[in-house]
């Protein structure tokens, strides 16, 4: 972390392609970031492949180049309890939806997960390290030019200023992959919570094919949320945009016409999935 009197700088590391490219560029001296903060939604909530990649490749690479890569977890201020998003969704007395579940018409509902498990975690850490609204920290967010619509800096804390260094460099997602490979690293998997309703249809199909137990767990989570909704007299919600239960919407053994990289379901901020 830069600790000049003027400014702190840190990169919001999402564990995906853009963040990893930013880490490589920082190691090469092309980006002026020495601190990367990974807001971990929970070891039971993040895509397991992202956590594996982090341990096997991102952390060793950062350490070898003298770059800080720190994981942050949501710790409740009063009770000091560590919360995970999946844990919160499945807690017995929980009334929370929290995630952007899809309504019957496919539209995502309001969510609080990005705010509570990403934005506030990084904001709190920067405040702890000295950022103030009079002297805000710069937070790098990994948006590439092909996802420029996600570059809205509405959602940040008063003691932060958002920076989009990949946009400044004019980098596309394909450039990010090339940069990662050129450093001798494999390209990371798409990062998001494994149950995120913003996942694309293809990524659900891929999960059903290659991780059937994880897929079943997502179906069970959808069931649980709907049992809770029924008790409250509310309509069903879904993890896909098809207005049907997950196991029906993503049938077994059926391939999809959707491209794995279709970004129709991306989170509209750069705090997740980068
Ligand atoms: S990946 Fe999806 S479910 Fe997870 S925090 Fe982001 S928006 Fe919420």
Characterization of this structure:
The protein is α/β, with parallel strands linked by helices and 274 residues long. It is built from 9 helices and 7 strands, in the order βαβαβββααββααααα. Strand 4 (74-75) and strand 5 form a beta hairpin. Helix 7 (201-210) crosses helix 8 (212-231). The longest helix has 20 residues, at 212-231. The chain is globular and about 50 Å long. It binds iron/sulfur cluster (SF4). The site of iron/sulfur cluster (SF4) has 13 residues, from helix 4.
Offer a few descriptive terms.
274 residues; alpha/beta; Rossmann fold; 2 domains; 5-stranded parallel β-sheet; two-stranded antiparallel sheet; 7 strands; 36% helix; 10% strand; binds iron/sulfur cluster
Based on the structure given, which CATH architecture of the largest domain is correct?
3-Layer(aba) Sandwich
Number of domains: 2
CATH class descriptor name of the largest domain: Alpha Beta
Radius of gyration: 19 Å
Give the overall average pLDDT: 90
Q: Give me the number of helical elements.
A: 9
Percent helix range: 25-40%
Explain the layout of strands and helices.
Elements: E1 9-12, H1 17-27, E2 35-39, H2 48-64, E3 68-72, E4 74-75, E5 82-83, H3 85-90, H4 113-128, E6 137-141, E7 160-163, H5 165-168, H6 173-182, H7 201-210, H8 212-231, H9 246-249
Parallel strand pairs: 1-2, 1-6, 2-3, 6-7
Antiparallel strand pairs: 4-5
Helix pairs in contact: 1-6, 7-8
Bound molecules: iron/sulfur cluster.
